[in-house]
Design goal:
Mean pLDDT: 94
CATH class of the largest domain: Alpha Beta
CATH architecture of the largest domain: Alpha-Beta Complex
Distance between the termini: 4 Å
Subunit structure: Homodimer.
Strand order of the largest sheet: 9-7-5-2-10-1-11-15-19-20
Organism: Desulfamplus magnetovallimortis
Structural class: alpha/beta
EC number: 6.3.4.4
Low-confidence stretches: none
Helix content: 25-40%
Largest sheet: 10 strands, mixed
Number of strands: 20
Radius of gyration: 22 Å
Cofactor: Mg(2+)
Binding site for Mg(2+): 13, 40
Length: 428
């Protein structure tokens, strides 16, 4: 397998964790390149569900894993996840996992600011998870961030944190009227965890590029989805990082010419967690049925996911933004019982049909989806082992997705387990 990037094409929760777990078998290295612990990847291995938030899914395949410089990391959360995976007999030693020395750390004051901001917005909340991801990326952009490399000189780390916290506490107390964060407690917290963290810190860019020079195959694991991208998504109802494939290079420290396959994960329908426009959202019994059968709850937050028909406007947008070379269709089996299916092919606004995803949120909220209707297949697909066995109407549904997106379907998932995966076109 060549160097492959896996990205979500919708608003996240497309099933990337399972596919990364599958493709990890054919990779040497797996690297996470953006986001924080506001994303969750759920894998089911031998009937057991395992959820990761920071550690790349490839760790379950006993592959060397890396957290790139584009990820913001809460060290306490990371150590908790390492302990959780270790308790499930997964090797997460420093030999198996490395964190970029250039990655930024989420600090306690980031979480405080994140929560204070959401509270202050009232009913205009964006829907952040409150984990401090946004404020951490904000500090990175304004050059006030704390990086993992800072832990290697703790006197420098302490001076830096105390200086930053003067400003943060002033902001918390005087603008949000919230409780300040005690600097001594922060220093003590990091003093206690640094000895466990330091063995994991490395120059990930150097290791990855050296590995590629030696013929190692690298899998790049994205978090969230294309339409939560800070620049290309439904701004401001987005995440705080760039989720598209181009950031795989920047967020891990490799050149873009080293990326070969770009695989987009797309549910057979569409879901979204939290606030923000969702043109194909269903508010009827069909939406409820999809939500229940698909067990649509966020892996990180536990929030109920909003469900709707497959939206080809956003899928075509994702294909263009990511230069997709292949699609993985997940949760096709969730649609098995439906009499008919709908696919959104455009948006209607002021009597005109729009085929491209608009940048203006107020315009998007006024759009009406334009649907084409397809007959359901009314057969169980969850036990199928090859593409030829699929019902004809299911094949037609998949072919229509290929036709409208201009991207071939290479893998189809019909269940949460590794075995419930059909390879239509092998690229690894």
């Amino acid at each position: 397998m060549s160097n492959t990037v896996v990205v979500g094409t919708q608003w996240g929760d497309e099933g990337k964790g399972k596919i990364v777990d599958l493709l990890s078998e054919y990779s040497d290295y797996v690297v996470r390149f953006q986001g924080g612990n506001n994303a969750g990847h759920t894998m089911v291995v031998e009937g057991k569900e395992i959820i990761s938030h920071l550690v790349p899914s490839g760790i379950l395949q006993k592959k060397k894993c890396f957290i790139g410089n584009g990820v913001v990391v809460d060290p306490g959360v990371l150590l908790g996840e390492i302990d959780y995976l270790s308790s499930n007999n997964v090797n997460v030693s420093p030999d198996m996992l490395k964190i970029s020395d250039r990655a930024h750390m989420i600090m306690p004051y980031h979480r405080s600011i994140d929560n204070a901001r959401e509270i202050s917005k009232g009913d205009k909340k964006i829907g952040t998870t409150g984990r401090g991801i946004g404020p951490c990326y904000e500090d990175r952009a304004t050059r006030r961030g704390v990086r993992f490399s800072d832990l290697l000189d703790f006197d420098f780390f302490e001076d830096k944190v105390r200086t930053i916290m003067d400003e943060k506490n002033f902001y918390l107390k005087n603008y949000f009227h919230a409780e300040p964060v005690e600097p001594d407690s922060v220093i003590q917290e990091f003093l206690q965890l640094k000895e466990r963290i330091i063995p994991y810190i490395a120059d990930v860019s150097v290791i990855l590029n050296k590995g590629m020079d030696e013929g190692k195959r690298v899998l790049f694991e994205g978090a969230q989805g294309t339409h939560l991208d800070i620049e290309h998504g439904t701004y401001p109802f987005v995440t705080s990082s760039s989720t598209v494939s181009g950031n795989a290079a920047c967020g891990s420290g490799v050149g873009p010419c080293r990326l070969n396959e770009i695989i987009g994960i797309v549910k057979a329908y569409t879901t979204r967690v939290g606030s923000g426009p969702f043109p194909t959202e269903l508010f009827d019994d069909v939406g409820d049925a999809i939500q229940k059968k698909g067990a649509e709850f966020g892996a990180t937050t536990g929030r109920k996911r909003r469900c709707g028909w497959l939206d080809m406007v956003i899928l075509k947008n994702a294909a263009r933004l990511n230069s997709l070379t292949g699609l993985v269709i997940t949760k096709l089996d969730v649609l098995d019982d439906l009499d008919e299916l709908k696919i959104c092919t455009g948006y209607k606004y002021n009597g005109e049909i729009m085929e491209y995803f608009p940048s203006r949120i107020n315009l998007l909220e006024q759009c009406t989806p334009v649907y084409e209707t397809h007959p359901g297949w009314k057969k169980n697909t969850s036990g199928l082992k090859d593409y030829e066995s699929f019902p004809e109407n299911a094949k037609k549904y998949l072919s229509r997705i290929e036709e409208l997106s201009g991207v071939p379907v290479k893998i189809i998932s019909v269940g949460p387990g590794r075995e419930a995966t059909i390879i239509k076109e092998r690229f690894f």
